[in-house]
Write a structure and sequence with these properties.
It is a single chain. The chain has 2 helices and 2 strands, in the order H-E-E-H. By secondary structure, it is an alpha+beta fold. It has a two-stranded antiparallel sheet with strand order 1-2. A hairpin with a 2-residue loop joins strand 1 (13-18) and strand 2. The longest helix is centred in the C-terminal third of the chain and has 36 residues, at 27-62. It is elongated. The N and C termini lie far apart (54 Å).
Length: 64
């Protein structure tokens, strides 16, 4: 519900420039895209770290 209210209150268009892409879109949509991108990046880094720790743990248990 809070997200819907936020999006309805922030419909003003803003100019967005990222690398070679540019354009304008509603502020709420730009923030939502940025949040989803950050969440995906965080999950990818976290999953890579968990895999690294599991691999290290298996190597340590095999050498005992």
């Amino acid at each position: 519900m809070v997200l819907i209210v936020f999006m309805l209150q922030n419909t003003r268009s803003v100019r967005v420039d990222f690398l070679w892409m540019n354009g304008s879109l509603p502020l709420a949509l730009a923030l939502l895209i940025a949040a989803v991108g950050a969440a995906l990046l965080t999950m990818a880094v976290g999953a890579a770290r968990i895999a690294q720790l599991r691999r290290l743990s298996r190597q340590r248990h095999q050498t005992r």
